[in-house]
Fold this sequence. Notes:
The chain has helices spanning 17-27, 46-52, 79-84, 95-100, 105-118, 130-134, 138-153, 179-194, 198-203, 214-221, 238-247, and strands at residues 6-10, 36-40, 59-62, 87-92, 121-126, 162-165, 206-209, 228-231.
Amino acid sequence: MIRQKIVAGNWKMNGSKESIVSLISGLLEMDSSSSEVVVAPSFPYLSQVDGLISASSIVLAAQNVSQEVKGAFTGEVSTSMLGDFGVKYVLLGHSERRSLYGETNELVASKVKTVLDSGLTPMLCIGETLAERESGKTLEICEQQLQAVIDLVGIASFEQLVIAYEPVWAIGTGLSASAEQAQEVHESIRSFLAKSSESVSQKVQILYGGSVKASTSSALFQMPDVDGALVGGASLDAKEFIAIVKTAG
Ligand code: PGA
């Protein structure tokens, strides 16, 4: 099964009107790619970025969304608001949301449902901490995180979402998982999904995230079950991000 690669830049809480103009103008120099290239700015800049990328093939993502559809939820942002600004993907369950903002597997699952219902595409982030890896629980944790979503939306919905495996110990630490370590987990995630649906498990794109750089991405992208990358720090540098996209082909 040929799965298109996705290279997504998660800008996290970085950027300004000015820096975004220069970052996007750098990205617009990118040659056309067979991969889908995605950027995820903070909410206030979605409109600006939507305008700047409108004539390109770059795709817009948001970093979070409310599980509620509308109403009295001060400070929250809804899926329909994201849709108004051309957003296609929504990152959900990022480890920073889980660990710093208390997002549980159940809350993440309910956000996945809201995003699917709105017609946008969840980019569901899962992954284990260092302590969990060292105690041999990597797969158990990933499976629990996936199972909560399967329980709520069903396995068939996984054809409408993207998974990002991001080991927490590799995020922002400079310690990327090796290509073999990533492949091992990606393959296990696919086998886990195959227990519910073989065809869904073959279709779903599984990205790797955690300290991806151009120097590590090409080995990662050669792995049969690695369908792209979710890039944090390195996505803030246009040249580096373009170099990562190039390694994806
Ligand atoms: P990083 O972040 O590339 O800076 O490790 C990845 C992520 O958090 O999505």
